[in-house]
Specification:
This protein has 443 residues and is an alpha+beta fold. The chain is built from nine helices and eight strands.
Amino acid sequence: MRQIRILFLALVPFLGMAQEQTNRFSLDEAIAHALEHNYSAINAGRDLIDAQKQKWETIASGLPQISGAISYQNQLKQPVNQIPAEFFGGEPGTFQEVVFGQAQSANATATLKQQIFDGSYIVGVQATKAFLSYSQNNKEKTDLEVRKAVVEAYGNVLLAQESVAIFEKNKATLEKNLFETKKIFENGLGDEESVDQLQITLSSIENQLKNAKRLENITLQMLNLMMGLPIDTATELTENLDTLTQKQIDIGLLEREFSMENNVDYKLISNLNEQRFFEMKLAKSRALPTLNAFVNYGGTSFSDSFNFLSGGQQWFGSSVLGVDLQIPIFSSLGRSASTQRAKIAYEKAKTQLTEAEEQIRLQLASAKSDYILSIEEYDTTKQNLALAERIENKNQIKYAEGLATSFELRQAQTQLYASQQEYLQSMVNVINRKTELETVLNN
């Protein structure tokens, strides 16, 4: 027992390490993981399988169908019939009470049905192919949306982490400034306002740092959710924001050839068009006759007691072969109205398709413009950050030498902090705008 306890204690650190194992993801690895484990992606895959099963269900309805039926009857009180007594040698005008048959009976039949012609079945099979195509395109759209959501979540985590690092650096600088300013004031060489100005700035930075740390945790949980992981999973990102941004700058993407038929939204609108077309064909097919054939075979047995399962019980066989032809003749123009409504819906779908083409072209132009703007803003904010750092550094030197006031230093610091956040946000914008463009291109 003591040896088991010692072994357990020796394994505890390793068990803890196993429980705290950190998952490390690059952006591409995070996307790949999400496409397999994201909850929406999983259900979209199930919808695709469901559509495949539905297609076969429709096809099978027109193939041979075999059904069986078994019935049992026990006449607790048999009906009595009256027959003229003269049939049995009795007096004319009188009747003899007679009970026909036996009290119990059993019947077993098997029926084979085969559809020979049904216009709605032909249209239905064609429509299932269109529905399967819709499910495939819907799965593709879901994957694109999951990819976009993962990229945004990944970028937000990096943004939060970079913000924390910058705020901590700014806090350290301010604490140093405040410490030195307090010493100067205590020695009677400075004014109290300078101390207060720096204290205000420091308090603001401390609040922003606390918020950035909370956001870091929340954005990481959001990324875990997008990847289909428990939100409290220990996850580490292997990319950094600057390197990832550089990788996302691809001017050649703007010149890439665009195919309308490759856009997933266009595919889905086209699927709607097909669906309305088949609904119109289905409405027209209801005016056609339907023809079905069937053959059955069965047996019937009679007895005064329940002995139908015994080997010696006699069964009387029967069989029927037949066809069933149904011809629509007159529906008080109901079928005509249904066909006209289906035709109107189809015409509306064609108009929607034309509108969708124009919207997608506009969406493409807008996505390209936003992507170019994000790159330009990235370059501008990078330059502005360098200038703001230089200005803040000069004011630090001037303030230390007594050539600048605390108000001037605070202005330079505030400008620097704003430039830092603008620069970080511009990098995230480059990443997100590229993803939006790639989604339109279905790249």
